[in-house]
Automatic annotation (TrEMBL):
Coiled-coil intervals: none
Gene3D superfamilies linked: PAC-like subunit (3.40.50.10900)
Presence of the UniProt keyword Chaperone in the record: yes
The name this protein goes by in its record: Proteasome assembly chaperone 2
Keyword annotations of the record: Chaperone
Native organism: Rhizoctonia solani
Protein family: Belongs to the PSMG2 family.
One Pfam family per UniProt: PAC2
Length: 805
């Protein structure tokens, strides 16, 4: 236990009451909707109460803030007592909940303080969950409940007697021996406070509320308190802090009206069609035939279910948007209602699907006579037609629904079965005839007649099913299912997959079942997941003009470095001229880019970084390095203006391959130089390996500030660090890398060396970049940019020499 006193009086406060008989202590309990705290705020500001004392903050979740509406250096603590000198109303305001492990201790100390402070009676303000009300509690939003050791007679002798006119909340706590029965849902510590022993008459005002905008509920509770205590309130004074929520309330109010309108429309439609929907659902589940319901009735059922499905979907969407935006997902009642809406939507979808199936069967049966095979009526006699019709009718009556839905067997497939099957499935018949017309008709020649007759046998269907050839219509339908057809353009990932499959090895296994032949090539189930050969990148360069998209489809860090390097070297002049991309003037003779379309505006030192395998992934070159502001206080209290200077130094985030010895020595040289501060780590798994960490955290400062009342005082003031780079900054950069945005992981990600270089000279960006670039050239053995370009171009052009990237 703490040695600090539980309650301490303020030195300048009005003090505790002198007369015990008529003084009232109002205690808001942290509960549902915070309506009790809001009500206490209204009473404190309307009655202009002052701070009497504070309670030990060790019992509550940490909370601190400024005085509401006051320009004062004092602060607000988790729990304070307010009152007025000579007044008989004292209000306790609790701004933070009690810690779980100190609840019993807190209740004991609080009641002991109340007993010893001279209060005549206690009024607890409690909010309770509106969704937990029973049927007997629907008659009112406000109830009262007496404390365990308080009787009605003891309350009648206090100013709280008028509260007894409100309905009681069940039985009194004195009659409830079972603690489980005395729980008031959503009321926090109210049950513990009311069940604890005490001699001070105590009563609780319970107000049922829902989570949301509870300001109207707070006004209603405060009005009840004012009427009970015979207070003459001309108008309630709201705390100034409430004014910040005006715009919030307007937006919340619009969404609230929208979802309530949709909910009301849905509930009205459900109430209107509850009986018919239930009967129809039962009928569809047990099975109905065309003799029991007509096609028009099914269409009407479907339209009504569709309308209710639209209403339910709108209500679900608007409720989720409203509660996610303003109430952190909503309470248990909201979640329960969402489950009801999802269940209703699922039932309606099943209902509509069943209507579709039955309607399709009814329409096929109705129109079945129109789907006949091509035949010459002159060759079949009337008696033969009648026999066929009788056979079809007899077979229709004895075949089960399962037999009708099965795929017809080619062996022993009679003409009657063929005609009936094609009548039930005209799509199959039409597709087979189309295929036959495109691939060559199966015909028989009759010597007695001059024209050709199409053989009405099941051979057409059998050949169509067994053939691998696609008709033009089927090819168009397959094309519509490709992802890029649905959008305005094909994604770079889709193009990359097609290019990678095109340049796959000729020795690939096509018998494993993961690919199918199409249009003279092979379509694979999964795209090629390994790096592509250079010739494939040449094809991708012609199809994709975005350099960022090219980096986003790279499968390895080495492949991404290759793309960045070949944007400036490694190509031929003929390829650049064919693509219509001019060669940059900064490159010497022979340094022709292989991927000129993926170039961007770069300085010579940035080009050197790309060619040498250094990926400059992020920097702050566009930041405003120094900024001066003047702050003038609004209050005319003789305060002087303050001059504040904000400064930010340049930094660069680079990625290199740690296996490259030249680049490893480059990073070592950066760290050894006094011009830079370096943070570096190997991207190993499961945790990265830190290579260079600043000795002091403040050495890696990004921005700093200093201020003074005069320019001279400002310039002589010490700098205060505002922001610094810690090693965790690399996680931030990784999330914004091209491969992370594309949802990929480099195959060689453990080979990446992440480096952040910070400018200790605190100069301009161009000077900082030049100093880093010059150190890179020296580490790679070059004396100038021209020497580097000549050397790298020569290394690329040598046959049999591979460039390390």
């Amino acid at each position: 236990m703490s040695d600090r006193p539980f309650f301490r009086l303020s030195a300048s406060g009005p003090g505790l009451p002198a007369d015990k008989s008529n003084t009232i202590l109002i205690v808001p309990v942290v509960s549902a909707g915070n309506v009790s705290q809001l009500c206490a705020d209204l009473l404190i500001h309307t009655l202009a109460l002052r701070q009497v004392g504070i309670f030990d903050p060790g019992y509550y979740a940490p909370a601190v803030g400024g005085k509401d509406g006051e320009h004062s250096a004092t602060i607000s603590t988790p729990m304070e007592l307010f009152g007025r000198s000579g007044g008989d109303i004292f209000v306790l305001q609790q701004r933070s909940p009690v810690l779980k492990g100190r609840k019993e201790e807190f209740v004991t100390h609080l009641l002991r303080t109340i007993e010893s402070s001279g209060f005549g009676s206690v009024l607890y303000l409690v909010g309770s969950d509106q969704s937990a009300r029973t049927d007997d509690q629907m008659g009112s939003n406000r109830y009262v409940i007496l404390a365990k050791d308080t009787t009605r007679d003891s309350i009648m002798s206090t100013p709280l007697a008028d509260l007894l006119q409100l309905p009681p909340l069940g039985h009194s706590l004195a009659d409830q021996d079972d603690p489980e029965k005395s729980v008031i849902p959503g009321t926090g510590l109210a049950r513990r406070l009311l069940r604890a022993p005490g001699t001070t008459p105590s009563i609780a005002l319970v107000h049922y509320v829902a989570e949301g905008d509870n300001l109207p509920d707070a006004h209603a509770m405060a009005t009840t308190v004012a009427e009970t205590l015979k207070m003459q309130i001309q108008g309630w004074t709201q705390p100034p802090s409430w004014s910040f929520a005006i715009t919030h309330e307007e937006i919340e109010g619009k969404l609230l009206k929208l979802y309530k309108r949709h909910t009301a429309a849905l509930e009205a439609d459900v109430s209107l069609h509850k009986g018919p929907f239930a009967a129809r659902s039962v009928a569809l589940k047990i099975g109905i035939t065309d003799a029991m319901v007509t096609l028009e009735a099914l269409r009407s059922w479907y339209a009504e279910a569709r309308n209710q499905w639209v209403l339910a979907t709108r209500a679900l969407d608007t409720r989720i948007r409203h509660h996610n935006a303003f109430y952190n997902g909503g309470d248990a009642g909201h979640i329960q209602y969402l489950d009801f809406l999802r269940s209703l939507i699922s039932e309606l979808e099943e209902f509509m699907q069943k209507c579709d199936e039955l309607g399709y069967e009814a329409s096929l049966i109705t129109a079945g006579a129109g789907f006949n095979c091509i035949d010459d009526s002159n060759l079949v006699s009337t008696s033969q037609k009648q026999e066929k019709e009788q056979c079809l009718i007899a077979r229709h009556t004895r075949m089960s629904e399962y037999e009708l839905s099965r795929r017809p067997c080619v062996q022993g497939f009679s003409e009657e079965e063929y005609n009936y099957t094609t009548a039930l499935s005209p799509s199959l018949f039409v597709r087979a005839r189309t295929w036959e017309a495109e691939t060559g008709a199966v015909t028989t020649e009759d010597s007695s007649r001059s024209r050709t007759i199409v053989n009405p046998s099941a051979g057409v269907i059998a050949n169509f099913i067994s053939s691998a050839a696609l008709t033009q219509n089927e090819l168009e339908r397959l094309l519509k299912k490709l992802p890029f057809v649905r959008g305005e353009s094909m994604s770079a990932e889709l193009i990359r997959g097609a290019v990678a499959d095109t340049f796959r090895s000729d020795h690939a296994d096509h018998t494993s079942g993961n690919c199918i032949p199409l249009l003279g090539g092979w379509v694979y189930e999964k795209a090629w997941s390994l790096p592509m050969p250079p010739v494939a990148w040449d094809a991708l360069h012609q199809l994709v003009a975005c350099a960022g998209c090219a980096l986003g489809v790279s499968r390895s860090f080495q492949e991404a470095l290759l793309v960045r390097r070949f944007a400036f070297v490694g190509g031929r002049f003929e390829d650049a001229r064919r693509l219509g991309v001019p060669v940059p003037n900064c490159l010497p003779e022979g340094a022709i880019p292989r991927f000129p379309r993926w170039q961007d505006q770069c300085s010579p030192h940035e080009i050197a970084m790309r060619i040498l395998g250094v990926w400059l992934a992020a920097d702050n070159r566009k930041t405003k390095r120094s900024e001066l502001k003047k702050f003038t206080p609004k209050a005319p209290h003789g305060k002087k203006s303050t001059y504040s200077e904000h400064e930010e130094r340049h930094w660069a985030y680079m990625r290199v391959q740690r296996s490259d010895e030249r680049l490893a020595s480059f990073v070592d040289a950066l760290n050894a130089s006094q011009k830079f501060t370096v943070l570096a780590q190997h991207n190993t798994k499961p945790k990265p390996t830190h290579v260079y960490v600043p000795t002091k955290e403040c050495d890696a400062w990004v921005s700093r500030v200093r201020s003074g009342t005069t320019p001279v005082a400002r310039r002589s003031a010490r700098w205060t660090t505002s922001t610094v780079f810690r090693m965790e900054i690399f996680e931030y950069f990784h999330k914004r890398a091209p491969e992370a945005k594309a949802g990929l992981t480099y195959l060689d990600e453990t080979e990446i060396l992440d480096v952040v270089v910070m400018d200790n000279a605190n100069g301009e960006w161009a000077d900082f970049l030049k100093s880093v670039g010059d150190m890179l050239l020296v580490a790679c053995g070059y004396s100038s940019l021209d020497c580097m370009l000549a050397g790298e171009v020569l290394a690329t052009a040598k046959p049999g020499v591979s460039v390390r990237v």
